[in-house]
Amino acid sequence: MRLFLVRHGDADAEIPEGLGDEARALTAKARANTAQHFAALSERMGPISLILTSPLVRTVQTAQLLSSVVKHEGLLRAHRCLLPDMPVGAVEPVLNEHADQNLVLVGHQPSMGALAAHLLGMQSFPKPVSPGTVIGLERTDGESPSVKFLFYAAPGQPVLDVIQ
Question: What is the pTM assigned to this prediction?
Answer without folding.
Answer: 0.93
